[in-house]
């Protein structure tokens, strides 16, 4: 059994993987109504409180190795204090059980969880494109096999300003929704039958999402409904991602495409992408922040050929 830990900025997560099935327990951190995020000190405190009950909720035995996310990305300078809770817990379990602990990034965890979800872990042996769409990240990554880290991820396209998850949450808070707002904004958008045509703001393969918040605010001030504003925001993001993918395919060819991150669970985005492209979308529980990919990482490290 392989144990995974992830303590991201908004979710405490523990997962176990037996090489076939993943079981996980997680808890979204509490954000006060009307606020747009958490201070790192508050996130660390909530992770510390959440961890014992999550561990107790899973049947854990015969641990073979532990995997944990220690940083947002596998790049120099990538750091957030909230990951220390997962690292400290994983280290304690590793020492007590006498098993190896393998460190990876939150981003790699997302990618591996998505591959597991769509039954394509075999893709770690070839090149593919991974979109990581979340509150802190709107990136398209060229993923390749890597001897030291299982996979490496090179940014080939990204948002140059506002991230997709930030646009979702800022619009949601504007509409009076609780943070994080993705699921509620998705449900609200489904109540709108109007369609919007967007001209994405692009610079090469990169995009800009900074205009969507102001446009959503202007819509509301001009009398648009919450449902219309929600659908406009999600349409803007979805059509922008589609344009990024068109340009990536022209430059990099027909590589497999995998979507991960909380924003990738949005139903409108999936509809737009699937209408035009062949792409893999993880099940929602593996798109949102999770420790499943960290457990898979430990398994892959322990079973290298």
Question: How would you summarize the topology of this molecule?
Answer:
Layout: E1 2-7, E2 11-17, E3 22-28, H1 40-57, E4 65-71, H2 83-97, E5 101-105, H3 106-117, E6 128-133, E7 138-146, E8 150-158, H4 164-174, H5 182-189, E9 201-203, E10 206-208, H6 211-221, H7 226-252, E11 257-260, H8 267-276, E12 280-281, H9 284-287, H10 292-302
Parallel strand pairs: 1-4, 4-5, 6-11, 11-12
Antiparallel strand pairs: 1-2, 2-3, 6-7, 7-8, 9-10
Helix pairs in contact: 1-2, 3-10, 4-6, 4-7, 5-7, 6-7, 7-8
Order of helices and strands: EEEHEHEHEEEHHEEHHEHEHH
The strands making up the biggest β-sheet line up spatially as 3-2-1-4-5
Discrete helix count:
10
- Structural class call reads alpha/beta
N-C termini distance: 18 Å
Task: Provide mean pLDDT, rounded.
Answer: 95
Can you tell me the overall shape? globular
Rounded radius of gyration (Å):
19 Å
SS elements, strand count: 12
* Low-pLDDT residue spans: none
User: What proportion of the residues is helical, as a percent range?
Assistant: 40-55%
Report the biggest beta sheet as strand number plus sense, adding barrel if it closes: 5 strands, mixed
Description of the structure:
The chain has about 300 residues and is of the alpha/beta class. About 40% of the residues lie in helices and about 20% in strands. It is built from ten helices and twelve strands. The strands form three sheets. A five-stranded mixed beta sheet has the order 3-2-1-4-5, with helices on both faces. Strands 8-7-6-11-12 form a five-stranded mixed beta sheet. The chain has a two-stranded antiparallel ribbon with strand order 9-10. α4 runs antiparallel to α7, α6 runs antiparallel to α7 and α7 packs parallel to α8. It is globular.
């Amino acid at each position: 059994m392989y144990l995974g830990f992830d303590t991201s900025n908004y979710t405490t997560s523990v997962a176990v993987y037996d090489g076939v099935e993943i079981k996980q327990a997680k808890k979204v951190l509490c954000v006060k109504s009307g606020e747009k995020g958490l201070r790192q000190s508050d996130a660390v405190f909530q992770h510390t409180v959440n961890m014992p009950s999550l561990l107790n909720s899973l049947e854990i035995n015969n641990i073979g190795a532990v995997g944990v996310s220690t940083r947002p990305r596998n790049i120099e300078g990538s750091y957030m204090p909230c990951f220390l809770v997962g690292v400290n817990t994983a280290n304690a379990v590793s020492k007590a059980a006498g098993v190896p602990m393998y460190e990876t990034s939150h981003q790699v965890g997302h990618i591996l969880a998505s591959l597991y979800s769509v039954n394509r872990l075999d893709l770690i042996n070839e090149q593919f494109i991974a979109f990581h769409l979340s509150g802190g990240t709107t990136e398209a990554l060229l993923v390749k096999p890597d001897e030291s880290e299982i996979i490496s991820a090179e940014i080939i396209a990204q948002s140059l300003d506002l991230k997709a998850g930030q646009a979702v949450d800022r619009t949601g808070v504007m509409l009076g929704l609780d943070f994080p707002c993705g699921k509620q904004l998705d449900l609200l958008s489904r109540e709108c039958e109007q369609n919007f045509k967007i001209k994405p703001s692009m610079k090469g393969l990169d995009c800009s999402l900074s205009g969507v918040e102001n446009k959503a605010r202007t819509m509301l001030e001009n009398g648009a409904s919450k449902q219309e504003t929600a659908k406009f925001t999600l349409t803007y993001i979805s059509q922008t991602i589609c344009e990024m993918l068109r340009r990536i395919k022209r430059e990099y060819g027909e590589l497999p495409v995998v979507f991960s991150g909380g924003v990738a669970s949005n139903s409108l985005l999936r509809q737009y992408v699937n209408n035009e492209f062949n792409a893999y979308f993880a099940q929602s529980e593996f798109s949102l922040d999770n420790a499943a990919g960290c457990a898979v990482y430990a398994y892959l490290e322990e079973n290298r050929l």
